[in-house]
Every structure is written in structure tokens, then in C-alpha cells.
Automatic annotation (TrEMBL):
EC number, as in UniProt: 2.3.3.13
Matches recorded under InterPro entries: 2-isopropylmalate_synth_dimer, AIPM/Hcit_synth_CS, Aldolase_TIM, IPM_Synthase, LeuA-like_post-cat, LeuA_allosteric_dom_sf, LeuA_N_DRE-TIM, PYR_CT
Residues annotated as binding Mg(2+): 46, 253, 255, 289
Main location: cytoplasm
Residue ranges that the Swiss-Prot or TrEMBL entry lists as coiled coil: none
Biological source species: Streptomyces nogalater
Limits of the Pyruvate carboxyltransferase domain: 37-314
Domain of life: Bacteria
SUPFAM superfamilies per record: 2-isopropylmalate synthase LeuA, allosteric (dimerisation) domain, Aldolase, post-HMGL domain-like
Protein name from the UniProt record: 2-isopropylmalate synthase
Catalytic function, reaction form: 3-methyl-2-oxobutanoate + acetyl-CoA + H2O = (2S)-2-isopropylmalate + CoA + H(+)
Length: 573
């Protein structure tokens, strides 16, 4: 197979490759995620620190309440030593009775510097459950460029930091606080694995994890620099090699620099991680942290409970947009304006068939569509489950086909057009979208449909308007029909006979010189109850043309006569 790509002028010599992990008996590729991990939202820390205008206390509070409402039990609420705003925010939620539910742990981040650690621990006084999260970068470039220090010096920063956290927690926090500890070897993804392990072990030697004394070891992809598979290999390696593993909560913190943070988080879970840190809608430094909404919804779409409530995704999004002063992209998974919308014909056709099949399957089993497995093509989840309506599912433009248009008519107007009529009407819409470009709204589709097939009260047209019709059947089964109508503007009484009302009407129309032959006829009720309307569809050959007509009436005979008139009027239009 030929590949005609040519070398580019890009300066590729500037970049090295990431290290692969020698782990030939890796197990993660065969694993599945069958339960939700522990989640930590870092919207108020990693998310907040990357905003042009960090959240005001009021915005922070809105975001915090939203996260609690959704069900997050671990929330990183800030970097209290960064300044008064974060410190005061942490104090405000601790001091306000009931602001932090008893089962929610708040967490705060600090560098491994004594003055910062003291201030950080101080911010947590009186908290019910709190974790201090300490980090220092461990990767070679950071050792050389940022800290200008050896491996041992870097390990010592982590060890000393851990000891200081414990000392200040002992001094400043009372017994009312269930105190936890988290350590992150920042830039884990570029750190030599043996060194990352060495630092984590040294930190554990200080913290002494054991029964009822876990340690959270968070291995951040501070800058995402490898494929998700290598990220997973690194997690599996740490998972296998860490001592005291049963007391370690192994946590992933993927960033999205290569656009694969979600995959990296999922593969890390398959490789042994217990917990994921991220932000709603992928907010965070540079390209963002891993998107907690996508991760949670990915689980949901596989029938795994994310243990987070996404049922009103638009409310979550509105709060997020207000707090971050940013907008969610229209293509953002599960939430963007366009993600449950299909414009293209073959997609719309499949979606319509999918909805129809769901209804039929549910009816056959005597249950509702919500009781059976979701199986609508092109829609990975039921939009209703996140509070979206079906209205936007199908939108029509020049890329659309009959299925989409038929879906709009069925969904909005309860008209289930026969297949050949769908084709006929879609050509009419196609001509309009080709001529005018852009999207045609459901309202416009309906206006075109009414004008084309139904007596349009705003713009009446056509040779014939039926007023009343009466048929009688004699003992031989011959129907005689009398129709009061306006023909070419004059009131007229038409009569005819045949083996049913439709053929009797055709007979009457022959008297006007109209040659009609029936090709197909279908009808259905549009609603239930006393005021139920019926829709009749008729396909006729009229003076050499093949055309559809539709009639809507509470009486099925009148509906069929109107359908004939619709087709006849169209033939003469
Ligand atoms: C990957 C991440 O997201 S990490 C979190 C990053 N978030 C933030 O930084 C937001 C909050 N930070 C801040 O407000 C400020 O950085 C402060 C108040 C904490 C500290 O400010 P400053 O005292 O001015 O220090 P600055 O931020 O410039 O830090 C640089 C110094 O800290 C050292 N340092 C950086 N990280 C760490 C660490 N984790 N532990 C110990 N020392 C560290 C650097 O080597 C440098 O030291 P040097 O001055 O001796 O060269
Ligand atoms: C502080 C750490 C966990 C971090 O945000 C990162 O490394 O990305
Ligand atoms: Mg981060």
C-alpha cells in the first residue's frame, strides 16, 4: 500500500521519546473496570490555579456545593498557603455548620516548605475529615533545572515535608479531625520508575501506613508525555512493586497534553489504580486535568454506576461555566450542545429506526422503553438520562435524509409517514436546503409539510376543498358517496359509487375529468381517547403522476377522503 506523505519541515530533532516499560507480562490489557474508583475533584485547586481570573470566594462556594451535590466525597479545596483567598475559603467551609457533609473529606495542597506546611495545616483546624497533600517534583529535568539537586536531596525534600506535615498536624489539629496524608511525586511520568518507587517508599517509612492508616500515593502525569498504554505500564509496575500495597490508595492524576487523559485514567485503573483526580469538563492546567464527567459517564454508558449524579448535566454545566467563566465546547463528550444531535442522513435514518425498534421491543415485552437495554444507533446513551430532551437529536440540513425528516414529523406531530412518502417529502426539503443552505428547523419543516400536503388555512390552495362527505353501503357491499365540496371556487355536490368510500370518491372525481388510481393506502391513530385523530396516507397515480396525499380527521373515512383531495390538489398544483 503506498503512503504518499512527504517529510515535513517540522524540527523533530528537538524532541526525545518517552521511555517504555519493560513489563512483558503486563496484565492490564485484559482487565475491565467493573466498579467506580474513588474520585477526587481538584476543580477548586488544579482547576482554579489555571484560570485567568481565579474563582472568587462566592464562585468557589458555588462549585464546592455543586461537587458535594453530585456526590464527590473527596474534594481538593485549595492551596491555602498561596494567599488569603484560599486560606479564608477553607476556613469558611470548615466554620460553617453543615457546609461540609460528614462523609466528605477536604484536601489541601502544599509544597514541601515548612512555612507553607504550617499555614496549610493551620487552615484545617476543626475540620471533620481532612487530608494534606504534599508534592515535590522528582523528574530529572526538575532535579537539574528547578531544584539543582541530587536524587537524594529530592528524596529528602519529600521525607522532610512528610515529617513536617505530621508534626504540624500533631500540634495544630485536635482529635475531632480525622487526618489523612497524600504524597505526589510531581512529574511522575518523567521520573525513573525505580526513583519514584524509592521516594514513595521513603515517604511511607515516615508516615507508616498500616491498618486504619492509609496513605494516598498520587502518581501524576503532570505533563502528559506518553501513550496511555505506557502510563498504564507505569501504574502496573508501581502497583506490583510498592510495599504495604494494601494500605496504599494508588491514585492517578492525568493531565491532557496529548489529548488522551481519559484513556490514561481508564488504563491506569485497569493497571491497579484505586482513585482518580480530575476536574469537571477537563478544566485544569494547560490542556486540563482529566475530565471527571467523561470518565464517570463512560462508566455509566457501560452499565457501571459512577456513584456521581450526572442526571442534570446542563445544571452542572451552567454552574461550571459561571464558576470558571469559560464555556463548554459544543462537541464536549456527553454535555456539548451538539453531542446528541445528528445532521447526516444515514445517522438520522438509523436513529429513527433505533427509536422505533426500542418502542416495538418494549411493547412486545409489555414493559416501557426505560426497562430495556438502550440500543439506539449513534447515541451511546439515552440523552434523557442526563436531562436532555429528544428535540435536538435530529436536526436537518443539506446533509440530511428522509429518516431525519420523518423523525421530526413523528416526534413533533405524531405523523408516521410511509417510507415512499418519506422519500417524496425529503426531496422537497432537500430542494429547499440546497437552495437556501443552512439548517431547517422543525417549525419550518412543519410549515413546508402543511403547505405541501394539508389545507393550509393561512395560504389555501388547490382545486378541491371537501366540506362534508356521506357514504351509504347497500346490501351488495356497494358504497355510494355524496360529497359537498368547493371545486375551482364553486360549491358542488359530487357523487360516486364503488366497493369502498375511496373507490366511490375516485368515481366521483372521474366526473370532474380527474383520472385517479390507488397505489397504496396506510392509516394510523395519532393519539388515544375520545378526541383521537387519525392520519390517512394515500399514494395515487393521477393523470400519469405518482403522488402522496395525507388527511387528518377524527373520522377515518373523512381522513381518507381528505388524503385523496391532498394528492389530487398536489397533482394539479
Ligand atoms: C503541578 C502543580 O499543579 S503544583 C501546584 C502549583 N500551584 C501553585 O503553585 C499555586 C499556589 N502557589 C503560590 O501561590 C506560590 O507558588 C506560593 C505562595 C506557594 C510560593 O510562592 P514563592 O515563595 O514566591 O515561591 P515560588 O512559587 O516561586 O516557588 C519556587 C520555589 O519553591 C521551590 N519549590 C517548588 N515546588 C516545591 C515543592 N513542591 N516543594 C518544595 N519546594 C518547592 C522552588 O525550587 C523554588 O525555590 P527557590 O526559590 O529556592 O529557587
Ligand atoms: C500537585 C500535583 C499532583 C499536580 O497537580 C500535578 O502534578 O499535576
Ligand atoms: Mg495537576
Amino acid at each position: 500500500m503506498a503512503n504518499r506523505q512527504q517529510p515535513s519541515p517540522m524540527p523533530i530533532h528537538k524532541y526525545g521519546r518517552y521511555e517504555q516499560v519493560d513489563i512483558p507480562d503486563r496484565t492490564w490489557p485484559g482487565k475491565r473496570i467493573t466498579a467506580a474508583p474513588r474520585w477526587l475533584s481538584t476543580d477548586l485547586r488544579d482547576g482554579n490555579q489555571s484560570l485567568i481570573d481565579p474563582m472568587s470566594p462566592e464562585r468557589k462556594r458555588r462549585m464546592f456545593d455543586q461537587l458535594v451535590k453530585m456526590g464527590y466525597k473527596e474534594i481538593e479545596v485549595g492551596f491555602p498557603a498561596s494567599g488569603q483567598t484560599d486560606f479564608d475559603f477553607v476556613r469558611s467551609i470548615i466554620e460553617e455548620e453543615g457546609a461540609i457533609p460528614d462523609d466528605v473529606t477536604i484536601s489541601v495542597l502544599t509544597q514541601a516548605r515548612e512555612d507553607l506546611i504550617e499555614r496549610t495545616v493551620e487552615s484545617l483546624k476543626g475540620a471533620r475529615r481532612a487530608t494534606v497533600h504534599l508534592y515535590n517534583a522528582t523528574a530529572p529535568v526538575f532535579r537539574r533545572v528547578v531544584f539543582r539537586a541530587s536524587r537524594d536531596d529530592i528524596k529528602q525534600i519529600a521525607v522532610d515535608g512528610t515529617r513536617l506535615v505530621m508534626e504540624y498536624a500533631g500540634k495544630l489539629l485536635g482529635p475531632e479531625t480525622e487526618f489523612g496524608y497524600q504524597y505526589s511525586p510531581e512529574i511522575f511520568t518523567d521520573t525513573e520508575l525505580d526513583f519514584a518507587l524509592e521516594v514513595c517508599e521513603a515517604v511511607m517509612d515516615v508516615w507508616q501506613p498500616g491498618p486504619d492508616r492509609e496513605i494516598i500515593l498520587n502518581l501524576p502525569a503532570t505533563v502528559e508525555r506518553s501513550t496511555p498504554s505506557t502510563h498504564a505500564d507505569r501504574f502496573e509496575w508501581m502497583h506490583r512493586n510498592l510495599s504495604r500495597r494494601e494500605y496504599v490508595c494508588l491514585s492517578a492524576h492525568p493531565h491532557n497534553d496529548r489529548g488522551t487523559a481519559v484513556a490514561a485514567a481508564e488504563l491506569a485503573l485497569m493497571a491497579g489504580a484505586d482513585r482518580v483526580e480530575g476536574c469537571l469538563f477537563g478544566q485544569g492546567e494547560r490542556t486540563g486535568n482529566v475530565d471527571l464527567v467523561t470518565l464517570g459517564m463512560n462508566l455509566f454508558s457501560q452499565g457501571v454506576d459512577p456513584q456521581i449524579d450526572f442526571s442534570d448535566i446542563d445544571e452542572i454545566r451552567r454552574t461550571w461555566e459561571y464558576c470558571n467563566q469559560m464555556e463548554v465546547h459544543p462537541r464536549h463528550p456527553y454535555v456539548g450542545d451538539l453531542v446528541y444531535t445528528s445532521f447526516s442522513g444515514s445517522h438520522q435514518d438509523a436513529i429513527k429506526k433505533g427509536f422505533d425498534a426500542m418502542e416495538a421491543d418494549a411493547a412486545a415485552r409489555g414493559v416501557t422503553v426505560d426497562d430495556i437495554e438502550w440500543a439506539v444507533p449513534y447515541l451511546p446513551i439515552d440523552p434523557k438520562d442526563v436531562g436532555r430532551s429528544y428535540e435536538a437529536v435530529i436536526r436537518v440540513n443539506s446533509q440530511s435524509g428522509k429518516g431525519g425528516i420523518a423523525y421530526v414529523l413523528k416526534n413533533d406531530h405524531k405523523l408516521d409517514l410511509p417510507r415512499r412518502m418519506q422519500i417524496e417529502f425529503s426531496r422537497i426539503i432537500q430542494a429547499k436546503t440546497d437552495a437556501e443552505g443552512g439548517e431547517i428547523t422543525p417549525k419550518d419543516i412543519w410549515a413546508v409539510f402543511q403547505d405541501e400536503y394539508l389545507p393550509n388555512p393561512d395560504n389555501p390552495w388547490g382545486r378541491i376543498q371537501v366540506k362534508t362527505g356521506q357514504s351509504t353501503t347497500d346490501t351488495d357491499g356497494v358504497d355510494t358517496l355524496t360529497v359537498e365540496a368547493t371545486v375551482d371556487g364553486r360549491d358542488t355536490v359530487l357523487t360516486g359509487s364503488g366497493n369502498g368510500p375511496i373507490s366511490a370518491f375516485f368515481d366521483a372525481l372521474h366526473a370532474l375529468g380527474i383520472d385517479v388510481r390507488l397505489l397504496d393506502y396506510q392509516e394510523h391513530t395519532m393519539s388515544e381517547g375520545a378526541s383521537a385523530q387519525a392520519a390517512s396516507y394515500i399514494e395515487c397515480a393521477i393523470d400519469g403522476q405518482v403522488l402522496w396525499g395525507i388527511g387528518i380527521d377524527a373520522n377515518t373515512t373523512r381522513a381518507s377522503l381528505k388524503a385523496v383531495v391532498s394528492a389530487v390538489n398536489r397533482a394539479a398544483r
